[in-house]
């Protein structure tokens, strides 16, 4: 079976979507009779072809990247058109059975055209910001691209979402689509439970892009209130983003700059140890799909504190953490105090997190995709 994939980000470029793509490729490369070509972006101004494995090729198109961790709107537009051109060229020599796009925007454009002119069916895997209304910073942009997004969904043979909440959001926007949930996964060999020990200050970690949607303002405010109450706490903010400088300024204004470490981008190979150096994982997002970082933290044996949004609430219950109302600083403060005054809670919930993460291992997730690919081939 031959599959053409489109993903504008693939490590070292991008964030969660690229990471998922990479982890699944490590398993897809072992599958007999499965051949994959991926069209992604290059980190510079040059086109290139890479051989990921004997059965997987990666073609990089230049989009003039400014930052390997983020894509500008102009870069997304460049990718859409350059990947379309590359897709047409490849399809002249390779008879693809199926197209898989990792996000509606920007990958949906080449899939839609190839479907029309090459008669190749396509599947869309949803990225959270693909859903109109999901990302506040794209509110203005959604007014223009929502009709385009809906058109791509309507012509797709299948839409893959990462959690029930995404599925429900899409159903409200575009009813009568064929939808399937396939969760994100975790490498339980790299990310494993920490050794528990009781000490102060209480160490929290938030691994997420530093953007408003991720809600780090709430966490910074919570640190300020906890400091006023004499609670010893240290927070590690891992990630980069548009709000980095604003967050640093806000921490200084609240006199908690010394309590918050801005670690920036941390290489993937260092993340397992980074999680194990923390006591608790916090994700105060205003909206979320299925967070890779949350799964990594759970596998690392951390109790988790998340907001009642998206796929996060599907992974967290009273056995492995706490769920609070997005933006509610007071509620977050009271939850953190529970761990401070009852240290045994950290170990108890952390062990439950690690156990719960096991059912989301990458092999299980990859098998769902593989079965989908080959069952689709039989049906077409």
Describe the protein in words.
By secondary structure, this protein is α/β, with parallel strands linked by helices. The chain folds into two domains: 2-185 and 361-379, 3-Layer(aba) Sandwich (Rossmann fold); 202-360, Glycogen Phosphorylase B (Rossmann fold, 3-Layer(aba) Sandwich), CATH 3.40.50. The protein has 13 helices and 14 strands. It has helices at 16-28, 73-93, 108-118, 139-155, 164-173, 216-228, 244-253, 271-276, 292-299, 312-315, 329-341, 344-357, 362-379, and strands at residues 2-6, 35-41, 48-51, 56-61, 98-101, 122-125, 158-161, 179-181, 202-207, 233-238, 260-264, 280-283, 304-307, 321-324. The strands form two sheets. The protein has an eight-stranded mixed sheet with strand order 3-4-2-1-5-6-7-8. Strands 11-10-9-12-13-14 form a six-stranded parallel sheet, with helices on both faces. Helix 2 (73-93) packs parallel to helix 3 and helix 6 packs across helix 11 (329-341). The longest helix is centred in the N-terminal third of the chain and has 21 residues, at 73-93. The mean pLDDT is 93.
């Amino acid at each position: 079976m031959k599959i053409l994939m489109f993903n504008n980000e693939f490590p070292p470029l991008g964030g969660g979507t690229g990471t998922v793509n990479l982890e699944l490729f490590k398993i897809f490369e072992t599958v007999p009779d499965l051949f994959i070509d991926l069209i992604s972006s290059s980190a510079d101004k040059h086109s290139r072809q890479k051989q990921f494995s004997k059965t997987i090729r990666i073609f990089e198109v230049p989009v003039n990247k400014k930052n390997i961790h983020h894509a500008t709107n102009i870069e997304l537009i460049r990718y859409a058109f350059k990947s379309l051109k590359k897709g047409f060229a490849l399809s002249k020599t390779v008879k693809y059975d199926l197209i898989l796009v990792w996000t509606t925007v920007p990958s949906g454009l080449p899939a839609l055209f190839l479907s029309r002119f090459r008669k190749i069916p396509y599947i869309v895997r949803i990225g959270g910001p693909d859903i109109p209304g999901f990302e506040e910073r794209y509110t203005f942009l959604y007014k223009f691209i929502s009709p385009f997004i809906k058109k791509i969904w309507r012509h797709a043979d299948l839409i893959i979402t990462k959690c029930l909440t995404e599925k429900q959001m899409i159903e409200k926007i575009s009813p009568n689509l064929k939808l399937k949930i396939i969760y994100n996964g975790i490498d339980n060999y790299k990310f494993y439970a920490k050794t528990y020990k009781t000490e102060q200050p209480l160490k929290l970690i938030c691994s997420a892009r530093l953007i408003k949607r991720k809600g780090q303002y709430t966490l910074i405010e919570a640190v300020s209130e906890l400091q006023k109450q004499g609670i010893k706490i240290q927070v590690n903010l891992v990630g980069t983003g548009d709000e980095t400088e604003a967050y640093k300024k806000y921490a200084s204004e609240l006199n908690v700059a010394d309590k918050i470490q801005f670690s920036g981008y941390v290489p993937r190979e260092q993340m397992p140890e980074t999680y194990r150096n923390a006591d608790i994982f916090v994700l105060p997002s205003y909206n979320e799909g299925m967070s890779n970082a949350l799964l990594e933290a759970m596998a690392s044996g951390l109790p988790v504190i998340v907001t009642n949004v998206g796929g996060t609430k599907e992974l967290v219950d009273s056995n492995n953490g706490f769920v609070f109302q997005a933006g509610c600083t007071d509620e977050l403060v009271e939850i953190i105090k529970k761990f401070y005054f009852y240290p045994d809670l950290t170990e108890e919930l952390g062990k439950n997190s690690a156990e719960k993460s096991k059912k989301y291992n990458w092999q299980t997730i990859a098998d769902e995709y593989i079965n989908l690919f080959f069952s689709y081939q039989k049906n077409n």
